Amino acid sequence: MTxxxxxxxxxxxxxxxxxxxxxxxLSAATRVFAESGxxxxxVQVIADRLGVGKGxxxxxxxxxxxxxxxxxxxxxxRLHERVEADTANVPDPIDRIAQAIHSYLAFFADNRELVExxxxxxxxxxxxxxxAYFEQRAAAGGPWEALLRGLIAAGRLRDLPVNQLRDVTSxxxxxxxxxxxxxxxxxxxxxxxxxxxxxxxxxILTDTERRRRAGAAER
Length: 219
Known about the structure:
With 219 residues, this protein is mostly helical. Helices cover 73% and strands 0% of the residues.
């Protein structure tokens, strides 16, 4: 059992402590929701995991709904932070894309329970305008779109619409994490990233077949 850090009564609020407590609650909530599902989870179970009263959890998150959605939002935010941190110092933009794909897969290999929360979010909260994952993807897309435009301008990528390049690659990765989850795959993230990169960067057609198709399209 993981107990929340305690603050002696009468002392001023410690913002760092408040933040740590929120993280502890969200971490425990993520595991419990993934194990039991949103409808079957009682906040008391989460409180018991932390060794605190139910009221302590409700002081930070006034309802089970708010707690669940905060757990999903936290997971998506942590994914973005992981990819950004891992790619920040990679100088070559092609290598940066490759590292981003590896970091993405590695994050979900380390945080499998988040995929369960994605499934539950869609099933239980259809009133949300967009799932948290897609909201964050849209918000974080600007720098990656600029990177793709730069590669096209430099002649390093085919001159395709940037949104097409971004969406196809992103959707491929999103589908991969669900396939990994449902099939219970344990493929090392680096190996899986290399397979994806081989197909994304080099395609599946030989040079001869690409020329044949290009010629057929011109006729």
